[in-house]
Amino acid sequence: MAKVKIQVNGREVEVDEGLNLIEAARIAGVEVPHFCYHPGLGVDGNCRQCLVEIDGIPKLQIACNSFVKDGLAFRTDTERVTRMQAGVLEFLFLNHPLDCPICDQSGECLLQDYYISNGKYESRLDTDKRHKRKAVPVGPRVMLDAERCVLCSRCVRFCDKVTGTGEMRIVNRGNRAEITTYPDRPLENDYSLCTVDVCPVGALTSKDFRFRKRVWHLQSAKSLCTGCSRGCNVYMEHEGGKVYRYRPRENMHVNDFWMCDPGRLTYTPLNDERLDVAIVTGEERTLPESIEQVGTWINIAVASGQSDSVAVLVSPQSSTETLYAAKRFAKDILGGARIGGGNVRPAGVQDEILRRADANPNSKGLEMLGLSADPAAVLSAGGTVLLVIDDDPLGMNPDLAGAFGKFEHVVYLGSNENATSAKAEIALPITPHSECDGTFVNFEGRVQRFWKALTPRGDSLWSPTIMGRIAEFTGQEFGWKSVRDLWADLQKTEDAFAAIDYASLGEVGAAAGSGQPASASAE
Amino acid sequence: MQPYAKPNLDIAGREACHVESMGHSVAFSDASMERFRHLLTRYPNKQAALLPTLWMAQQEFGWISTEVIEYVSELLELPPSHVYGVVSFYTMYYRKPMGKYHIQLCTNLSCMLMGGSTVLDALQEKLGIGLGETTADGMFSLDEVECLAACEMAPCCQMNDEYHGPLTPESVGRFVDELRARGK
Amino acid sequence: MEIKRLTKNFGNPESWTLAAYEKTGGYQMVKKAFAMDPEAIIELVKQSGLRGRGGAGFPTGMKWGFVPKQSDKPKYLCVNADESEPGTFKDRYLLEHDPHALVEGIIISCWAVGIRYAYIYIRGEFGLPYYRIEAAVKEAYEKGYLGSNLNGKGFDLDVTVHRGAGAYICGEETGLIESLEGKKGQPRLKPPFPAVVGVFGCPTVVNNVETIQSIPWIIEHGAEEYRKAGTEKSPGTKLFSVSGHVKRPGVYEIPLGLPCKTLVHDLCGGIIDGKRQKANIVGGSSVPILTGEEADNVDLDYESLAAAGTMLGSGGMIVMDEDTCMVWALAVLLKFYAHESCGQCTPCREGTGWIRNLVYRLEAGDGKREDLDKLLSITGNMMGTTICVLADAAAMPTESFIKKFRAEFEAHVGAGRCPIRGKSAHFLAHAH
Fold first, then answer.
1. What angle do the packed helices A320-328 and A463-472 form, to 10 degrees?
2. For burial by CB atoms within 10 Å, which of A94, B8, C142, C336 has the most?
3. ipTM score of complex
4. Quick check: C387 and A90 CB within 8 A?
5. What's A234's DSSP letter?
6. Is the same domain home to A189 and A72?
7. CB contact under 8 A, C89 and B130
8. What CATH number should be reported for the domain whose range is B10-89?
């Protein structure tokens, strides 16, 4: 795309031709206040908050519907702009309740932010406010406070343009205008919580999140949703060791600005029913002694030349790193153990927007590592030790109990207590994707990073580390201290990953096979 | 994924959408259906036929109920929320049953200058109802309306789709009596 | 003083029928136009100096010229018959008395601009005008004036009458387009302009009834003759709708540039009961108000009115006598604007309701002295900040009322009731 030179508040910057002035100003480090414009929903021009002064045009213009061309100069800092922006804000507050102390949006409310940055006028609102509905459900997952709504129509446009379901509507006109659903047509599409994300104020709030945490206490980490094989980019927001919510993170190659509701609510296993200490036959034990027991069993098998009596059941729920460590463990340390795993999760809903039927975040990674062997084949002959890594195969497929029973020892490496951990003789706690760095490969073959958000809970360790410690009992080791170390090996030994450099994955990931960061390869 | 529990979701839509049920489903007569099909030929897409279709529906069913909205949204393949949004935006789609004679008195400047408010007082007294109300016998509904573009006959009113004016407190009394006689 | 061009058939027996229209030479100009090059017609309209009669006064020929000559998409004409500017009723007269002149104007305009489809967007409240124009279109189809191959060389034209449903804002050209598309009539962002992206995403001309109805006359008599009425910059005749405290309210077709005094005091017979003209809103409720004295000294053309600080607008003149309370009158107008704001743009949605409430309070004698400056400051924040001009249309009268009649507003402060009318307007309590 052609670059043009423009001036923002007197400073020259170079930007892509055709950008609107809100985006152009952002590149120049200038925030133009706005409510209705959203990059994923386009220009609507109703809020009138983004008025700016463009050289050569006498009237103030809205930045969202003005576009850069070479030599264009505009200002956001003149007396006139400041005055008019404050004027628009004052209009918005005219019928807006001043209930910030009890509003869940406090701390991430544009009205609040702009009042601080562009308002701060003395109140002269001495006429009665209009009253509208407060705290009514508009759908199973979204609550509405119509008084707080600034009528920006973002939610309307989301349901019209993105999901095509058209539930939200502004009805009536003038200052009687009000956001609503139609009777018996609640906001229940699979992406309804995105309306909460795009709502610039506290009108639409998430039932799941509301009143649970003040947002200014939250910390945020870049992560991925594990609800299906799309791998929507998210912010994982947490406090005090607990994850409170996912919010979609922009990635135009994967999920644009959105994510589905079911995916958004998949964070709960990161908090609940965690396996965070080692369990040996139902008793809590220290991690070292538990690892020693497993190491001993493995060593006996290896030493007696019976490594094929060991089986490793892996899961497309695991990170690429876990899968690679498991593969190396089976092939190199043991020298010929059976390994494989596949999709034990039932297929979910697939749609035209984001959702994929494959409910696993790393099926593609599993396939690229050559680990998609049928679990039945892995388990069939029984043996000495069965290592089950991640997920809950027994919980999802109780019929596997018979096959499990054909092994002398069943060892589980996982992050949650479940049917599989309960059945295992030894269960070892490994870090879920909230507690380590790592990658998943989405259904299109895009390798994407997630970042460590929390310190590992209890005794949990990174799974390659645990596998490494077990390996030590056979006199061998992996020697990976970090994801980077592991990836150096991965890139060398796995053809499918040869072209991918972990360091260059960036925030948007890279398409496997291209060797280029996605941002470059997609253009 | 777990199926979601389905709570009572009626609240939001019901409170904001002032639309009532007729208690029965609706469908155009054959003649209206013929007109409707002709209507569609006058526009490049179905949505554009919304206003005229609502007019036809109001003519046939009397007012715009939930059933009418659902019916029209099916005919034109539009979300009911869109149809309701349109209905609520315009003043001439009635969301409740109206009297046989709907009197709308202009209360804009030209009419008010010529004594519109005394006519309004007289009308309310004569009919025994206030603005936005319908007489118990279903004969009259009374509303105020913005400029009807008939200022030369101020103060004026619209009775169904006829204009009447200039009105005086006395003449509206006679007018109401005439209508009442006609309507019996 | 009156010059009857567009109103020439008013009063003829059954003037609205095809038979009556043809008897006075109706539809002859279609034949003449078909013999002309479309470009030449546009040029002729440009030369005539005809300006849009809906309110904005944009030169019609120029507007037509903005439509791309070559277009993959069909072109549309939307005739704006959504006459709803308070005090304006001239299009209603045209539609009731001479609907075929509109149809003839449409045919010629569409031929000139290469338009395939025309819609007549008529306001929902119009009963009789709707039936008349519907009947006229039907007659025109039956007689072969509309339909396919109208000129024997493949020119097709379909005309559909589309009824609005009660919303002032649909008189704004992009609000009209949205409404025609089956949506709420909320004005669109510009650019793109309708000439390029209009109804159904196609190039579109939106013209007022009076504008289109002027076209056959211009074809018949030529641009030079057209300019013989009116002034150099405001040529032609204009239909004024006069209402309020005049003895003979009605529609008057006058040459532009006629002294306002002549229209009010001569044609309309002056003020009822010989009272003094206290104020005059000359161009429809949205334009700044003039005092009676100012009105008596201004000429009715675009330039003179602009110089006097107001606008020609739609030519809807509302005359007020000496007993009129200006605070009350403004309250009545602001009731209207708050009711009609489409609710899209923040400053208009919130501002119209706010200034209305403040003026209500003043009218009731409960206002504060600082409310006057507050009103001026709020209207300052409303003007020029919205998609369409409805906010300006509410703000401009407010400013001019307060500036020109400030003492009267101040007299209401703390009075407990309207000091002029002796009571307060109880009807205002009914407003939403």
1. 10
2. C336
3. 0.95
4. no
5. E
6. no
7. no
8. 1.10.10.1590
